[in-house]
Amino acid sequence: MSTSFKRGRGRGRGRGRGRRLIQHERNSKEMKASNEENWCGAFPDDVVLDILSHLPPKPFYRSKCISKTWLSLSSAAFPLNKHLQPTLRGFFHGAISIFRRNLGFTNISDRVHEIDATLRAFSHHDEVEIIDCCNGLLLVKCCSIEPSFESRDMYVYNPATRKRTAIELMPKVYFEDETYSEIFSLAFDPQDQSHFYVVSFRQWHSPCLSYDDSFYIFSSASGKWQRGGNLECVSKITQNAKGTFLDGKLYRLTEGHQIVSVDPKKQHFSSDQI
């Protein structure tokens, strides 16, 4: 057998092995795609639609590559997914009149949304005041003046959905001629939209032997106030500067150039000098 014939047969065998390898890889990819389609097809369309309508942006767009079914259902899930909708941005403002506060809302986003800008839900009250806000929720204090009595109420209100939750006010504390200030802050994490906290800071205007400066926490889960602890070595909380809720902690400034933080979930308090 000639040398050239042996070489030709060797090249033929090499080409044959190459074709078989390519065909094997092609079959493996087709089988993998078929298995993925079968796996994804095991979920009913309404289940897939529900999953897609709750995913954050990055997982949502990645899931469109899972299968053709998920890709087609993503268009129907898009308007249902709150994480993908334009954010409503704006601010409330108003002037104080003799009998009530005149409130307004300025929309600074491109989203057109019907919002209760004048807090019509509280129109039956004589005075309405927004004492704090956090991630779209408002902490509203209302006062109704009747001939025989005066009632005060507090609510956490969503002006976009018009849903409100009544917050039971804590009983007032009376000790001789001593008085105290009570400052409220709202803590709400939009990732957990079914839950919020209200933090109350109680500080006496002068040193009181019977009571310490302390903070209390209202939880929407329990619907009750709980004493969080004492405000040790802290100057007066600044009333004009609102609180900031970030990474699960509520921050406020004091008149003594301190930053106090409260973790409402763990009921933990700390302070740092600026």
UniProtKB/TrEMBL annotation:
Ranges where the F-box protein At3g26010-like beta-propeller domain occurs: 123-256
Domain of life: Eukaryota
InterPro entries with a match to the protein in the record: At3g26010-like (IPR055290), Beta-prop_At3g26010-like (IPR056592), F-box-like_dom_sf (IPR036047), F-box_dom (IPR001810)
Domain F-box: start-end pairs: 43-74
Protein name per its UniProtKB record: F-box domain-containing protein
